[in-house]
Automatic annotation (TrEMBL):
<dbReference type="InterPro" id="IPR001254">
    <property type="entry name" value="Trypsin_dom"/>
</dbReference>
<dbReference type="InterPro" id="IPR001314">
    <property type="entry name" value="Peptidase_S1A"/>
</dbReference>
<dbReference type="GO" id="GO:0005615">
    <property type="term" value="C:extracellular space"/>
</dbReference>
<feature type="domain" description="Peptidase S1">
    <location>
        <begin position="27"/>
        <end position="244"/>
    </location>
</feature>
<dbReference type="InterPro" id="IPR009003">
    <property type="entry name" value="Peptidase_S1_PA"/>
</dbReference>
<dbReference type="InterPro" id="IPR043504">
    <property type="entry name" value="Peptidase_S1_PA_chymotrypsin"/>
</dbReference>
<keyword id="KW-0732">Signal</keyword>
<feature type="signal peptide">
    <location>
        <begin position="1"/>
        <end position="23"/>
    </location>
</feature>
<keyword id="KW-0378">Hydrolase</keyword>
<dbReference type="GO" id="GO:0004252">
    <property type="term" value="F:serine-type endopeptidase activity"/>
</dbReference>
<protein>
    <submittedName>
        <fullName>Trypsin</fullName>
    </submittedName>
</protein>
<keyword id="KW-1015">Disulfide bond</keyword>
<keyword id="KW-0964">Secreted</keyword>
<dbReference type="InterPro" id="IPR050127">
    <property type="entry name" value="Serine_Proteases_S1"/>
</dbReference>
<dbReference type="Pfam" id="PF00089">
    <property type="entry name" value="Trypsin"/>
</dbReference>
<dbReference type="InterPro" id="IPR018114">
    <property type="entry name" value="TRYPSIN_HIS"/>
</dbReference>
<keyword id="KW-0645">Protease</keyword>
Amino acid sequence: MRGVRLLPAVLALLVITATPVHAAPRIVGGVVAEAGEAPWVVALTSSGDQFCGGALLGPGQVVTAAHCVDGRPPASITVVGGRLDLRTGDGATSAVSAHRVVDGYSTPSRGKDLAVLTLAEPMPYAPLPVAQSSGVYMGGSVGVVYGWGRQAEDDAVKSPLLHKAHIPIVPDAQCAAVHPRYDAVVMFCAGYPDGGIDSCVDDSGGPFVIDGRLVGIVSWGVGCARPNLPGVYTRVTTYLSAAA
């Protein structure tokens, strides 16, 4: 894994289980990403249909949410890179040869919602460095989330264009007050008090980025962009560390 190392004893071989009923949880209020600004963003597809996002850790490895791959054989997943508009044939594709999830993962709301995919063919795009310090999770810090998901909670159709949105991190105490299962060791929240801007369905696994470094992964939430209900993200620095 170029540029990234896994922290000891946090990943194990995937055990195939039933996919959780809330496995496509929480871009709403965002804008279309510009060409070249996020070369490390990838789409996870199955039979040609996008179902989650991810980010390149290196040419042959992708980080995404555990719930995106839980219950899916690796061979059933194709990763698409360098393609802002999924209706085109731009970019590169690779089958997934293997995937691993964090040991003890069960459902997104219980945390540990992270998986690393091994690609059969390397991607020719720059990887996304991992954040180096837990200080990035300070309340009020603004990150950018990317995804091809739905643009409203009640949308029946998702966007074929990669979107992004700037969202502030919510202090842990505020998040715990609205999400009883919130665990600040493995999660963080981001959102606006008035709602309106958020990640949404099919954005799962997509990256949350601050200052050009991976900070979080879209994990779960209650609806999309609802007031006083921030989305919940996997706290990446708990599981991944930048290489020395």
